[in-house]
Design brief:
Number of helices: 12
Shape: globular
CATH class: Mainly Alpha
Order of helices and strands: HHHHHHHHHHHH
Number of domains: 1
Distance between the termini: 51 Å
CATH topology: Hypothetical protein af1432
Bound molecules: fe (ii) ion
Number of strands: 0
Length: 201
């Protein structure tokens, strides 16, 4: 176990037990997906261990940290400060835990809303966080995301974002611009594939 992993595992002992258990399930899920998709398992592990470092903070605390960090706060973040726990963890992971891998930090930042131009690692963390067994249990749209994740991270991400949009409409939640950008990008990529000419045989 390296230093960063050790420190992140120690940090888990200071968060509520339910959250720590979730993080460890995401670590397992991230390892499984990294193996299937040929993604760096160490990076996946560190991203998973660090992704919810600030998840137990109250809305008020998250907004205070955002102001202290001089972070960009979207109007949707003001309505739903919980969305900030991803991006705000980035400077803390870098400065207090020594995480310097930009892809890992990007994965943590994007795990709450998704974003455009996500890397494979970033998609992996986003999906692993949503499909860990406790969250996928008995919720068929999430179960479908889980099945898709075994073969196609883009399809899994798209299916989750579609589901999220439907729930947001139902619950009257705001939609974060990064979520919309991520979904639009996936739709554009799917259309580009559909329009591509059939290869000549
Ligand atoms: Fe989270
Ligand atoms: Fe999480």
């Amino acid at each position: 176990m390296n230093d960063i992993e050790e420190r992140l595992r120690a940090a888990l002992t200071k968060v509520p037990p339910g959250l720590a258990a979730h993080v460890l399930r995401v670590v397992d899920e991230a390892a499984r997906l990294a193996h299937i998709h040929g993604i760096d398992p160490e990076a996946a592990k560190i991203a998973a261990l660090g992704h919810d470092l600030l998840r137990a903070h109250s809305d008020g605390r998250l907004l205070t940290i955002a102001e202290e960090q001089g972070a960009t706060i979207d109007p949707v973040d003001r309505l739903e400060p919980v969305l900030l726990h991803g991006p705000l963890a980035v400077p803390i992971l870098r400065e207090q835990y020594g995480v310097i891998d930009a892809d890992v930090l990007g994965a943590v930042a994007a795990h709450t809303t998704a974003a455009s131009r996500m890397s494979r690692l970033q998609k992996l963390l986003f999906v692993a966080d949503k499909i860990e067994p406790y969250k996928a249990d008995g919720r068929s749209p999430v179960q479908r995301v889980r099945e898709l994740a075994d073969s196609d991270l883009d399809a899994a991400l798209r299916a989750y974002l579609d589901y999220h949009v439907l729930v947001a409409l139902d619950e009257r939640w705001p939609l974060h611009p990064n979520t919309i950008a991520a979904r639009n990008e996936l739709v554009a990529a799917e259309r580009a594939v559909r329009r591509a000419p059939e290869p000549r045989t």
